Each structure stands twice: as C-alpha cells, then as structure tokens.
Amino acid sequence: MTATPVPPALTNSPRRRSLLRAISAVGASAIAGPVFAASAATTPDLSKVTLRIGTYKGLWRALFTAAGQAQTPYRIEWHELNNGVLHIEAINGDALDLGSGSEIPALFAARQKAQVKFIAVVREDLNNQVTLARKDAPIQRIADLKGKRVGYVRATTAHYFLSKQLAEAGLSFSDINAINLTPADGLSAFDRGDLDAWAIYGYNGQLARLRYGARVLKTGLGYLSGNFPIYANPKSVAEPLKHAAISDYLQRLRRAYLWSNSNYLAYARAQAAETRVPVGDLVELWNARSTDYDLRPVTEDVVKGHQAGADTFLQLGVLDGPAQVAPLWDRSFASALQATPAAV
Fold first, then answer.
1. Beta bridge mates, 79
2. For 183-233, what is each residue's pLDDT tens digit?
3. Is residue 338 packed enough to be buried (19+ CB in 10 Å), middle (13-18) or exposed (0-12)?
4. Residue 161: which of 303, 308, 6 has the closest Cα?
5. Could you give phi then psi for residue 172, rounded to 5 degrees?
C-alpha cells in the first residue's frame, strides 16, 4: 500500500457524491462461506453480515484467495479504489466498512475530523520507497540534490521521506527544484530526462531502476514508520456483528500476510494475474524487502509515530493547522490480533 495526493476537504462535494454513487453501482464481487460451526451461544452468526472492503489491484483480494482465507462466514464486497484518499472518502460517506492506505491520508482525515477510525497497521517494505538519481546525473548522495530537478508526489510518503533526507543533509525543499508529479507523470519525466532525481514509492521506482538504470540514493528505511493503517467505518466498529466480522477479517488478513512471507511466489502469481506486472519483477521487489509482512494491533508507539508525521507536515506547510491523530485510533481489535495463530 502507498501514500496518495493531498485530499480535498471531506465535504458533500460533487466529486465525493460521484465516488459514492460509483461504489454503490459497482457489481460487488461477493465471497460467501459457511457460518462458524461453533454454537450461537459462543460464536455470533455472521451469515447475514456483509463487509464492504476497499482493496487495491493485486492486494487484499488476491492475497485472500492465494492464502486460502476467502471462505468467510460473512459476505465480502470488494471495491477497488486506487488510493488511500478514496478509501477514506468512501468510509466517511458510509460507502465502505474497511479500507487501507498510508499514514498520510489519515493525517488529513484527522485534520478534517473525518468519520473514520484506524484499527490496525500493516507492516510493509520500506525499501520500495526510494530517492533515485538518473544513471547519468552527477549525483551520488542526497547533498548533491542542491539545485537539481527533483520529482516527488506532494502530501505522500515520498514528500515525507524526501523532506527528512534533505534535512539530514542540511538542505530543505527551497534548496532544490522540487517538482510535484503523479507517479505516472514522474516516470515519464524521469525517462525523458526532465528530472535529475525522483522520490517515489512502489512499482514505479522498480521500473525506473529496471528500465532506465536509476541509482538508489536512499530508501525510506529509517525515515518512515513502516505502519500502514487499516481504515474502518466508525458505524461498523460500533455495531456488534460487524465488529465481530471485522475481527475475523483481521485475523484472516494476518494469517494471509504471514503465509505470504513463506509463499511469496504463489502470492506474486496471484498479484500478477490482477495487475499484469511480471512475476519476476514482483519477486525482485520482494527479495530486496526491508521487512516481512505482518498485521499488528494499535500501540502507543504507533500513535506517537503517526503524530510525529502530522507535526512534520505542519512544519512543511502541507497541513493548514495542527492535526491530533490519537482520537481516531481504535484499540478494540487488539485482542483479536494478539490471539491470531500464525498458521493458516
């Protein structure tokens, strides 16, 4: 999961109404399964529950199928939304029960007092969050970026780790020619030679390395928390049967992530079937990972790390005022995650 551009205010805008109508109109892919075998006295009957879950192409839906976790005692409606801002907007508009993304859209959700909760964190690879230099550019270290054309994506993890790396080298954004580009536009600009360097995340950074010989100056390791929140609808969290279904979903998701650490080739094949990204490229990214996948409960360190990000973005002028993130973190699923067995 990667960060996304700064969201508009979460109001009843035409864009948001259009988004919610689109989600409602999508023919949801439902996965149904048997109800729990245990007695109703100890285990709730979730057979009439439907969880509306936002996913990214090649991620949760593919992971659940590959890991054998798809036979749930409730229905799942998968809704493919390609960035965390859209996940939060849909949850805020009561069109989703669960979604995910980086900590960055969550900062703006906190600032705007959106109707969303953060209930767990995925631990993900930070070596695929990179500051790159063109192979022919006279740039060997971050300090060499002074005066250079550096692409980045505003209000994302790339913005955050680039700012940290520049500060560490005694520089700031005012010392570089910072160019805000979408990931796709950034890749094209990098290819044309319109950028000397690029702060980017995910598969686009891999393409820049494989296709254009980009050199890695720094990764996000040591600059980002590595926590990618699970977003939840507060109404769903408060409703007992949906809370139980979400608990089960999180347990399955954790087992699936742990399974993928030992079966990544099978997961990569499932990802490739959805994304059309070559399996070999996915495996190469995996082999260079900074950490294994995991799903973890909310802890005090998670909340503190998120607040540190909010404070940094306020100093950078990206946020229009202080954002207090703690009220949006919900710890009611901690026991379910802590009890999750590692075996599938």
1. 54
2. 889 999 999 999 999 999 888 888 898 889 999 999 999 998 889 999 999
3. exposed
4. 308
5. -140, 180
pLDDT more than 90, % of the chain: 62
Alpha helices in the chain (DSSP H): 14-25, 60-67, 84-92, 103-111, 157-168, 183-192, 203-212, 234-238, 240-262, 264-275, 279-287, 300-315, 334-338
Taking each helix axis from N to C terminus, what angle separates 203-212 and 183-192, rounded to the nearest 10 degrees?
10
Using DSSP bridges, classify how beta strands 29-31 and 98-100 pair: parallel, antiparallel or unpaired. unpaired
Nearest-angstrom CA–CA distance, 16 and 81: 13
CB-CB contact of 230 with 120 (8 Å): yes
Could you tell me if 15 and 22 are in contact, meaning their C-beta atoms sit under 8 angstroms apart? Answer: no
Query: Which residue ranges form the domains of the chain, and what is each CATH number?
Result: 14-124+227-338 (3.40.190.10), 129-219 (3.40.190.10)
pTM of the model: 0.81
Q: Hey, how many other C-beta atoms are within 10 angstroms of the C-beta on 18?
A: 10
| C-beta atoms surrounding 280 within 10 Å | 11
What pLDDT does residue 16 have? 53
| Structure tokens given for 93 | 């508009």
Q: Whole-angstrom Cα distance, residue 216 to residue 127?
A: 10
| Tokens standing for residue 114 | 């959106």
pLDDT in tens, 10-45: 545 555 555 555 555 544 444 433 333 333 447 889
